[in-house]
Design a protein that fits this description.
By secondary structure, the chain is of the alpha/beta class. It has four helices and eight strands, in the order H-E-E-E-H-E-H-E-E-H-E-E. The structure holds cobalt (II) ion.
Amino acid sequence: MSRLPCTALALIALSGSHTALADCGLSVEVGDGLAYSTTSLATEASCETAKVTITHTGKLPAAAMGHNWVLARPDDFDAVTKAAIQAGLDANYVPDDERVLASSKIVGGGESDTVDVPVSTLGAGEYVFFCTFPGHWTVMKGTFTVS
Ligand code: CO
């Protein structure tokens, strides 16, 4: 929004259309290290379904340095990460568990995946996103805000 010229901002304000500002398509990059390109993502419930794309810009294969994007409520973080270890790489380290609100595949270097997040169903609030590759969630973690 800050990149829009003043005239565009004025038009948006005059239109009174709140949904026009909603960012329903989000993206996050990962690489050959233990980090997301951002630790804070935000969207709006009016999107109904938000799309989050995770792109691995590194070179290492998924088995060595794979990453995914998993969403849960903050209170469920510990339980989901523990269950993820049991799930294994073949299941993208994602447990079959209702506490997982959305999840991508594990991606390796050069790969990407897009996740549908049912934000209207989830409702407004703060959620946590993280990588469930074993050990990664201690540092690969961020906040997903639905307003
Ligand atoms: Co990871």
